[in-house]
Amino acid sequence: MNILFIAPRFHSNQIEIVRTLISKGHNVKFCVMYKGPLETYPDVVPMLLPSKTSGDISMTGNEAAYIKNFRLDVIQMMKLLKNLKPDIVIIRDKSIAMRRIVLLCDILRIRTVLYDQSAIYEPALSIMRRIRRRIYNFGIPKERYSPVLYREADKLESNSRLVQNDKKACYIPFVMSLPYEFKKEYMEDGKLHVLDVGKYREYKNHTVLVDAMHRCKYKENIDITIVGQCFSNEEKRYYSNLQKKIDELNLSDRIELVTNVESSAMREYYLSHDVLILGSHNELASISVLEAMSYGLSVFSTKNNGTAFCVTKGKAGLLFNPNSPDELANCLSACFEDSRKVKIWGKNAREYVKKHHSAEAYLMPFEKLLNIKN
C-alpha cells in the first residue's frame, strides 16, 4: 500500500514506525512543514510541503506559531498528491494547512486518517462539550488513532472512570525495538545515575529535577545528566538560566548539562544510566520514556505525560506531580531505601516494551485500520 504521512516535522518517534511499514512491504512517503536541526532520516527522507510561508523558525523556535501561520500552496499540493498517488494519507495535526490537505484528498478520493496523541479513553464529555468538539473537528478525518491509551492524570482525577468518547478512534502503540541483549548493572558504584532528556524549554520543566536534587537527602550519591536541544534563542536562554540555578544551589559537581545530541547517539546515555526522569508539563506522549524502558531504565514520569500509563502498567517506575519537587525527591530517595527496586523496575520496563511495543504489536491494529471500509 502507498502510505503518505503528513506532519509538521519528522519526529524521532516515526523512525521505527516507518521502518516497520517498509519492512512489511508498504511504500512510505513523508511530507513535513519544516525540518528540525537534530533529525535523522535512516529510511525515508521527508519532503517539504509546498508553501508560501516566509521566515525561519530555527532561531525563534516558535513551532506552534509557524504551524498556525503555515500557508500551504494548494495548487502545488494538488499536483504533489496526484504525483505520489497515495492510497491513504495520514495527517498529524488539525491546523488549517492540514484541513486543506484533507479537502484536496476528498476531491481526489484519497482516504485520510488523523494520527494524534489525544487519549483514547478520557473522562466522559457533557453534551455541550461533545457539540463543541464536533464543530472544532469539522474538516478533520473521522477515523483517528493514537498511541495514548489514557492519561494517568485523568484516571486519578476521575477515579478510573474513563470512557471512549470517540468511537471511531483506536489505540495503536509506538514501535520500539529492543537493543541487543546486554547485561545491565544498576547503581554498580553505589551511585544513582539519572538521565533527563528534553529540549531546553520551559514546558520540559528541567528545573523540577534540579529542585528535587537539592532537597534529596541522598544527593551526594546521585549524578544527573540532562540532555537537550539548544539552538533557538529561547532554548539558549533557558539553558543559561538552568545552569545559573545549578551553580547557585552548588550542584554543578552533580548535574551536567549536555546539548544537541543526535538521536542515533543517545544509546550510550541510556546504557550508562539507571533512571530516566521526565518532568514535563503537559507532555503529549514522550518517546524518551519508551526508549529508556527498552534499555532497562526505571522511569519517573509526570502524571500528565501521555506515555505515563506505560510506566504504571509495566510496573517500571513511579509517577509524580510536575509542580512538586518534593514528590520527585521522594522518588529518588526510594532508590536508596530499597535499591532492589531500581533493578526490578528496569527489568519490568524492558519486558513491557518487548511485549507491547514490538513491530507486531503496531502492525496488527494498524493494518486492521487500513482494511476498514469507509
List keywords for this structure.
six-stranded parallel sheet; globular; 14 helices; alpha/beta; Rossmann fold; 2 domains; seven-stranded parallel sheet; 374 residues
Question: Can you walk through the features of this model?
Answer:
The protein has 374 residues and is α/β, with parallel strands linked by helices. The chain contains 14 helices and 13 strands. The longest helix has 17 residues, at 340-356. The protein is globular.
Topology of this protein?
Blueprint: E1 2-7, H1 15-23, E2 27-32, E3 47-48, H2 63-68, H3 74-84, E4 88-91, H4 96-107, E5 111-115, H5 127-136, E6 144-146, H6 152-157, E7 169-171, E8 192-197, H7 207-215, E9 222-228, H8 233-248, E10 255-259, H9 267-271, E11 275-278, H10 287-294, E12 298-302, H11 308-313, E13 317-320, H12 325-337, H13 340-356, H14 359-370
Parallel strand pairs: 1-2, 1-4, 2-3, 4-5, 5-6, 6-7, 8-9, 8-11, 9-10, 11-12, 12-13
Helix pairs in contact: 3-4, 7-12, 10-13
